[in-house]
Amino acid sequence: MTVISDAMTARDKNDIPSRIVPRSKYGTWIAGALVVLFVFLALRSAFANDNFAWPAFGRYLFSESILLGLVRTIELALIAMALSILAGMALAMMRQSSNRVLNAVAGTYIWLFRAVPLLVLLLLLYNLAALYPEISLSVPFGPILFTMETNTVITVAGAAIIGLALHESAYCAEIFRAGLVSVDHGQREAAEALGMSSWLMTRRIVLPQAMRAIVPPLTNQFVSVVKTTSIVSVISMPELLYSAQIIYARTYETIPLLLVVTFWYLVLTAVLTVAQHYVEKRFNRGRAGLSDYTARKLSRLTLEAGK
Amino acid sequence: MIDLAEKSTGVAAVEIRGVHKLYGSLHVLHEMDLVVAPGEVVCLIGPSGSGKSTLLRCINNLEKIQAGVIKVFGELIGYRRAGERLIETTKRETCRARQHVGMVFQQFNLFSHLTALQNLIEAPTRVQRLPREKATEYAKELLGKVGLADKHASYPAQLSGGQQQRVAIARALCMRPKLMLFDEPTSALDPELVGEVLDVLRDLANNEMTMMVVTHEIGFARQVADTVVFMDEGRIVEQGPAAQVLDSPRHERTKRFLERVS
Question: Domain ABC transporter spans what residues (chain B) (predicted)?
């Protein structure tokens, strides 16, 4: 210490600057101000423009048929997603299987339903009766157990759910596969060496760890499904969008009703985003949102601080 | 100290006869013959790629063998005998047979989503169907033995490498194994952390546990091993009492290897 301060006094004191000035950020300020201005102008135009018809928006926001459509949208998304998760999981495990046939079947399924646009798939299912007028359950090459008309099985709702599930399960399968692959091979070996069966290992060791990699893209997929349900309006399924379309076909209040629909999709997505946060937290046990490296460094630091 | 090893008389702990292992056309183990007595500590040394780890993994059937036979306390793991042939058993039977062979890996392989205590009791409660309280009691005792009694609620990521490896050893011991296999247990550790893990191994050896250790720690082998096996290019070059193999090796290849590592 003394050596350094002695050396300082020996030198010219004026050599040391009196203040350090941070770099100026005029560019940031100007850009920020411009964005605020544009947002203000856009909002003003929206509220000053009578064509937006905000009173009509308020009138329909909680109207019965809109809320009914909203409930159908939620039901549709939940059922389709639940089926997709189950099918996706099975497909992902088939893809991991050493059985070539299972592997190829899963691969073909994923290729097929990712390739066919959902809109086309829905129209095909909706018109399935033209292809198979009757659906019957029978023993293969044996007697028929019972027969039904296709149109009683594949109703509008049925076609919507089946179409969405077929389409989304192909994507879910890839998400699950990525999750399973992300688990270190050593975890499987350790479980095997402890005498755990394949099923026990998958359920207790591999899946819980794979979930860390699965949950973020899966929630993303769920958000996407909620919005994709609007496509089923083409087969006259009265979900949120089609319910609004029915009204504005009669009243010509197109814009306010589409805004009502937009509003509800925004609410659904916001709710899911909050839910995602909590689900991710649950599956991040053991790393608490930190990378392994950071977590270890931190715990070592707290150890040393405790000494 | 409680006695962890189960004493049995007459039967060898591990009996390896004429074992060959191939990966496709790559011949990684040639005509292996090795007998380990109960309570014996065997260290396997040799250059990397010599087949030490593969041999260890064949013992608990993590790897399949293409010829020969391996018995652990007189029993086959992963196979059953039908006259002149060995027939692969179902996965379920293989799992049951290897319960009593503990294995410790170079990379620890602790279950990262479970705490130290949960790592220990997972297999005893799910595979051996031990009541939770009983398993927990024994697990805590074992964590105490490896000096980590206060770490039972920590996740692997919160532990140092040495601590993780000690938990991994306790996890294997929690299944009450008759034989412990160690696959380079200290190779992934910082030099300053090697000692704490070797202390645990030494302790186990003193308690008559039958152990097979693949290691590069020649000092440890000299101190603890009853038998040292030197392997090179998939063959056992020589085996014998630790002092003899390490201090006056018979083969030129062993001599050269020992000169390079020590």
Answer: 14-258
User: For residues A33, A36, A37 and A41, what is the CA-based torsion angle, rounded to 10 degrees?
Assistant: 180
Q: Please name the member of A196, A286, A290 whose beta carbon is closest to the beta carbon of B123.
A: A196
Mean pLDDT, residues A292-303 taken together: 54
Mean per-residue pLDDT, A7-16: 66
| Residue B146, domain member (yes or no) | yes
State pLDDT tens for residues A19-44.
888 888 899 999 999 999 999 999 98
Q: Do B113 and A286 touch (CB under 8 A)?
A: yes
Decide: A145 and A139 in contact? Cβ < 8 Å: yes
Which chain B residue is nearest to residue A204, measuring alpha carbons?
B122
Q: What is the DSSP string of A81-108?
A: HHHHHHHHHHHHHHHH-S-HHHHHHHHH
Could you report the predicted ipTM of this complex, rounded to two decimals? 0.90
Write the pLDDT tens digit of every residue in A185-221: 999 999 999 999 989 999 999 999 998 899 889 989 9
Tokens linked to B38: 């109960």
What pLDDT score was predicted for residue B2?
38
Q: Which helix or strand (DSSP H or E) is residue A59 part of? A: helix A54-61
Instruction: Kindly list the distances between the CA atom of residue B155 and the CA atoms of A50, A243, A273, B111, in Å, as whole numbers in the listed order.
Output: 60, 51, 28, 9
Cα-Cα end-to-end distance for chain B: 33
Query: How far separated are the first and last CA of chain A, in Å rounded?
Result: 28
Q: Which of A197, A208, A286 lies at the smallest CB-CB distance from B95? A: A197
Query: A75-237, what's its fold?
Result: MetI-like fold (1.10.3720)
Number of domains in chain B: 1
- Examine residue B173 and state whether it is found in any structural domain, yes or no: yes
Range of the domain at B141: 109-177
